[in-house]
Design goal:
The chain has 198 residues and is α/β, with parallel strands linked by helices. It contains seven helices and five strands, in the order E-H-E-H-E-H-E-E-H-H-H-H. Strand 3, helix 3 and strand 4 form a beta-alpha-beta unit. The longest helix is centred in the middle third of the chain and has 34 residues.
Amino acid sequence: MSHLLGYARVSTSDQDASLQVDALKAAGCYRVFVDTVSGALEHRPEFDKVLDQLRPGDTLVVWRLDRLGRSIRHLIDQLRALDERGVGFRSLQETIDTTSSGGRLVFHVFAALAEFERDLIRERTNAGLAAARARGRTGGRPSSLSPAQIKAARRMYEQNEMTVAQIGDVLGVSRTTIYRALNRQSTQAVPRRSRSAV
């Protein structure tokens, strides 16, 4: 017998998840898991629990797409992982249901857009590097990154668009350089919880 399991997420302890929980229960979810997560996507204990409970044929239901992922890339990765397990997905606000043919079509469109976005980032970065070489800045891999490159790397890293290795390939530097730049920026910014390496 298949089940509908709900997942809700709020950003701070001040926020109330009751709106999401009520909507998920009204949609038929027999159990709802709620996470309170601040900052970028980090460890989500209740999300881990709902993943553990889901069985082939079950459906994970969220109130809105951004409750599952903070970026298109991360969202697609989550949906693909669910699909590989034979688990469906529904988003109430966007009326997306991957157990239907229309919902599966939307999922494939999202996946294509995410790949397109990643290719655009890579092409823009490579074009910038080529322009720099044309102006006489030649040599091997740069030992450091410009502020703009660090900002781009930070955005891709926090939004889970690429792994550190992929970011390094796009920017033409080693993984160590990316880690060093991200760590340096973190120490200069407001202190935040550390995250595990990708």
